[in-house]
Amino acid sequence: MTLTATVTGFFLLLLSVEVIQGQHSSGVKCSPPAVCALKGSSVELNCSYTDPFTGTNTFKRMYWFTEEQDGTPVDLRTDPQYEGRVSFTGAPGHVTLRITDLRESDSAVYNIMVEAEEPGVLFTIDPGVYFSVTDLQVQVRRDQYGNEPVLICENSCRWTSLSYIWYKNGEAVHTESYHYPEDFDYGDNISCAVKGHEDFPSPPFLIQDQVSWEVKCTADICAVKGSTVDLTCSYYDVSTRRGLINRVKEMYWFTKDQDGEPVIPWTDPQYKGRVSVMGVPGRITLRITDLRESNSDVYYFRLETEQPGGIYTSDPGVSLSVTDPDLQVQVRRPDPHGQVYLMCQSSCLLPQHSSYIWYKSGEEIQSETSSSYNLKDFTREESYSCALEGHKDSSSYFVCVLGSSCNRVLHTERKICAPKGSSVNISSNYNSYENITSKFWFSPALSLHWKNPILPEDLNEDSQFADRVQVFETERGRSTLRITDLRESDSAEYRFKFKTQSFEWTSSLPATTLTVAALQVRVTRILVNQSSTYADLECHSSCIPARGFSFTWFRNGETNSSWPETTFYKGWISLEEEISCAFRGHEQFPSPPVYAPKVPSVLVTSSGEILENSSVTLTCSSDANPEANYAWYKKNGDQDVQPLSNTSQLVFSSFQSSDSGEYYCVAENVLGKRTSKLLFVDMKYKSTMVINAIRLALMAVIPIPLLLFSLWMSHCRKKTTLSSTPEPNEPEGTAEVREILGHTYNHLML
């Protein structure tokens, strides 16, 4: 029969050449390969079919689909998005898809699945028919040289060669041009429609006296870690004021911090060497290479003109999501020659020239590195998976080539994060082509505890998990491992395996990785005054990001129901306060608190008595989180100039008398600072050399007055001999003075 396909209804064709889709004359043929239709209209797509085996045009079943689930196409008629808007009609050799009330969300690649009369024989088209749904918009365009503004009938299908109808204040304007042909005045309402489809006009555009630019950017993007992405925006001068030259002064890309302030990517250290900007007039592109998960953000483009207040920003921005590869194996059913084609596909942008890894029933296939895999020989028990080179931990789920009873294990979650002290369920779907003889959960991290390091052992037999592990099945083919009272040491990879009489599931692919979250309060921004600090705090988790969790904040161990349950906390913190956080519902496991330094303590250490030229060390310590920084000062010194030391210790390798004085230290972190008490350090004893010098000086000087004193005493004795009667008023204590002097003399002569 003749192979034809027609498209009818209220829509327009982007291409109209007939293209035979599929491989090896699959028998299903549709044209054109792409369709662009108006929002709100209806569309019909007709395809033809001939059985390549029998030459007949009969079939058992036909249906359309856009998505697959576990390798099985999902009939559009069961998709809630299309409820009441989609219908199939068919006759021998033909099938028709009709969609009414088209929406922009209907834009997708549509495929048809044909089940032949022969059991197990299926055919489809590859890559399918692309539907794009658009609406019309009246837009102003003018160039940067000040030419007069013009109106165009804009649409994403770029229908510039079709016939249009323009409306001015509700009245039709006789023209078929893509551009509005007449003059317009302020206050006019202008709209447009495609000729023949006047029921779907654009919204009216009000002409105003305005000086403005329009900025439009690409849709949100999902990209894989390590890849390169281009974010593109276009910008137009849509000023309607005649005779105006509205030149661009500056334009740039930016993200926003948590307070909404612009952050220029190339000034951020995390983007160093990975960001470039390219552009031509009217179009600018931000390219980011070697993407990281931390690059996930909303990116905005802004231009500033010479006109006062002329700042224009893309709104909304471009949301970039950087993630692991979201891979799926698409199975193209056997062709007339009995071959099966497997395609490794992703919903995210993959790195160019990617190399792939294929797995058969859990084991790596060494010879296959492309995104497609041609199976010539296969059995019903085999299952297949794929991964990107360098991303083995993000492989696709295993799919069966024929039927659904192949050998496979599907760990439903690759990464799980749970709070310390909580419980977690780790599940796996499994299937076996034969009867299973044994099944259990194990962790490769515990291999050192096994009797044989290459023979996994059941977690139930490990003493580390005694009374904390339970395995149960809520339904056939789904095993769940529950671990209670989680500890940080439980962070590991967990696998499920089964055995039959002739087969053992021993996949080398990563299974489910559990992270037991430890919390830490991070200070992200501060504003300090004398007695307190205004701080932005983040309750940081080893789960990055900590999605799905609520938090409890504590001040000196107390909480308040009015405080936020989010990962961020803002507020004034005094020098005496301590702030911590916990997962809500697990408040018994809070983070270590953050606080300003406590009053520092000081310590003096030396090799003995503090003598001249001896070694002396002053040590400052303070309890603080984050850890404190230290500085030493001498009283009456200038603290604003330079501290004596910027460490916790002040060391005098050779102490001098000029070093004597009062010292103090300052302990400081981002939340505040504290000063120690004054410490007086002095040389309490002179050195031996100085003492000996003083002794020698005294020995040389003191004998002179002693000699004079002796002569005087001798004279006094003579007078006493002349008069043996004591004078009544003779002074007493002369002998005492002598003794005192003699005592002093003897002491100095030691």
Structure report:
With 750 residues, this protein is mostly beta strands. It is built from three helices and 56 strands. Strands 2, 4, 6, 7, 10, 11 and 12 form a seven-stranded mixed sheet that branches. Strands 20, 22, 23, 26, 27 and 28 form a six-stranded mixed sheet that branches. The model is unreliable at 1-25 and 718-750 (pLDDT under 50).
- What is the share of helical residues? under 10%
Structural class: mainly beta
The number of strands is 56
| End-to-end CA span | 135 Å
**How much of the polypeptide forms β-strand, as a percent range?**
35-45%
Number of helices, where a helix is a run of at least 4 consecutive DSSP H or I residues:
3
Shape: flat
Mean pLDDT: 78
Low-confidence parts: 1-25, 718-750
Radius of gyration computed on alpha carbons: 44 Å
Biggest β-sheet description: 7 strands, mixed
A few lines on this structure:
With about 750 residues, this protein is mainly beta. It is built from three helices and 56 strands.
Primary descriptors:
7% helix; single chain; disordered C terminus; 750 residues; 6-stranded mixed β-sheet; mainly beta; disordered N terminus; 3 helices
